[in-house]
Specification:
Elements: H1 3-6, H2 9-30, H3 39-63, E1 72-79, E2 82-89, H4 95-127
Antiparallel strand pairs: 1-2
Length: about 130
C-alpha cells in the first residue's frame, strides 16, 4: 500500500467520528437527557453512537477499495467456560499503513461487537410487548 492509497482514510476517520457523535447526540436528545437522565437510554445512545462510528469507518474503507482483510484473521478460543475472540494482525512494512490497520481493526471489532446486541435489543423493543 502506498501513501496515496491511504490518503482518503484521514477524512474518513474524521467523518466517522463526526457521524458517531451526531448519532450519540440524537440518541441523547431522543432520550430526553437535557430534562431528565435515564441511564439505560444514555448507555444505549453511547452504544449506538459507537456502532455508527465503527460501521462508517469499516464500511467506508471497504467502499474506498482499501482492503485490510487479508492482514486480519479472527479466531474463537474456548478456554473452559470462557469463549474469547482473538484477532491476529499481520503487520505491514510501512508504519503509516500499520497505524491505519490498527484503526481499521479497532473500528471493525467495535462495529461487529455492538451491532448484534443492538439488533437483538431492537428486536425485543419492536416485537416483545
Amino acid at each position: 500500500m502506498t501513501q496515496d492509497d491511504l490518503r482518503p482514510l484521514g477524512p474518513l476517520w474524521l467523518a466517522s467520528i463526526l457521524v458517531g457523535f451526531m448519532a450519540l447526540g440524537v440518541g441523547l436528545w431522543m432520550a430526553g437527557v437535557p430534562s431528565h437522565i435515564e441511564w439505560l437510554f444514555v448507555a444505549l445512545a453511547v452504544a449506538v453512537g459507537a456502532a455508527v462510528f465503527g460501521g462508517v469507518f469499516f464500511i467506508g474503507t471497504n467502499l474506498l477499495g482499501i482492503h485490510f482483510e487479508a492482514r486480519v484473521m479472527d479466531e474463537t478460543q474456548i478456554k473452559g467456560s470462557n469463549v474469547e475472540h482473538v484477532t491476529h494482525v499481520e503487520r505491514l512494512e510501512d508504519d503509516a499503513a500499520n497505524h491505519w490497520l490498527e484503526r481499521y481493526v479497532f473500528a471493525r471489532n467495535l462495529f461487529g461487537g455492538l451491532i448484534i446486541p443492538l439488533a437483538i435489543l431492537g428486536g425485543l423493543f419492536l416485537f416483545a410487548g
